[in-house]
Design brief:
Strand 1 and strand 2 form a beta hairpin. The chain has one domain: Orthogonal Bundle (P1 Nuclease). Strands 2-1-3 form a 3-stranded mixed beta sheet. The protein contains 11 helices and 3 strands. By secondary structure, it is mainly alpha-helical. The protein binds zinc ion. The site of zinc ion has 7 residues, from helix 3 and helix 6. Zinc ion binds next to helix 3 and helix 6.
């Protein structure tokens, strides 16, 4: 077991984590998508959470979580065991998600998927902050960086895509004139095309536009987005269910192997991508606030 991957939730077996897992080439939102999610999250952090985040960040981040939001992708080849934690594959054409059925790696090792990883790193951070007297068992800087990245990944619809096509990785299409696989279209190409077409190639401008939508057309939805039922600290199962549903309705639709995706696809899917970036950011902040604002528990007699 890798020392920084503990045991997680409900259907977790005691041997929840393993070294050596298969790499599939799945990465997650590209650098821009992850940067945007963490940047949006920063705006919604409570004072206490912001302070805790800054204390955990290494100096190289300059106090900015967004700078290290893609760290988990950069170290994938070094921390090979972490590859399976970027996604959860669901049964072909089912369009639904079930933690106990779906959260495992390609060897069938339970809890090794993006939702399991979110529970795991939430638990690591929360247990350390809820009981300051407890011995530090985990590398909390890594836990923060993994959590911030994986909350982003679980919002990319094809990170809860079908097992048979590896979340769209084996579906080759054309994105306008360029060859690409469908997963990459959703990780990068839609965002890249949006930057060029609408935002003057400035990520900052795109992030500002999304932030404006959050306080404007989506303002009535933000409380719902932040909500986590049953007083849970993290709610990744809900986000994965939304993702596979969006994968069926938008990502896979009209994107069969060999098809050319152009304006029709781009302009109808971009609003989905922008909303997922917004939800990812708001929910990352809500999760970190719940972790770091929790009061130390009083031991019961
Ligand atoms: Zn990723």
């Amino acid at each position: 077991m890798h020392p920084n991957y503990g045991v997680i939730q409900s259907c977790a077996s005691a041997d929840a984590a393993y070294a050596h897992c298969g790499a599939t080439g799945v990465l997650g939102w590209g650098k821009e998508g992850h940067y945007a999610i963490c940047k949006i999250a920063e705006e919604y952090l409570s004072e206490g959470a912001l302070l805790a985040v800054k204390q955990l960040l290494p100096d190289s981040a300059g106090g900015d979580l967004a700078e290290l939001c893609s760290w988990a992708d950069e170290i994938r080849w070094h921390f090979h065991w972490s590859s399976a934690l970027h996604y959860v594959d669901t049964p072909d054409f089912k369009c639904n998600y079930d933690y106990c059925r779906d959260c495992h790696d390609s060897y069938g090792h339970k809890d090794r998927c993006v939702t399991g990883a979110i529970y795991n790193y939430t638990m690591q951070l929360k247990s350390a902050y809820a009981d300051t007297k407890s011995e530090l068992k985990y590398n909390l800087t890594e836990a923060l960086l993994f959590l911030s990245h994986f909350v982003g990944d679980v919002h990319q619809p094809l990170h809860a895509g079908f097992t048979g096509d590896l979340g769209g990785n084996t579906i080759m299409v054309r994105w306008y004139r360029r060859k690409a696989n469908l997963h990459h279209v959703w990780d990068n190409m839609i965002i890249d095309s949006a930057l060029k077409t609408f935002y003057d190639s400035e990520l900052k401008v795109m992030i500002q536009a999304i932030q404006k939508n959050i306080t404007d057309i989506w303002s009535n939805d933000v409380t719902d987005w932040e909500h986590c039922a049953h007083n849970y600290t993290a709610c990744p199962d809900w986000y994965a269910s939304e993702s596979v549903s969006l994968a069926c309705k938008f990502a896979y639709r009209n994107a069969t192997p060999g098809s050319t995706l152009e304006d029709d696809y781009f302009l109808s899917r971009l609003p989905i991508v922008e909303k997922r970036l917004a939800q990812g950011g708001v929910r990352l902040a809500a999760t970190l606030n719940r972790i770091f604002d929790s009061q130390p528990r009083i031991a019961q007699a």
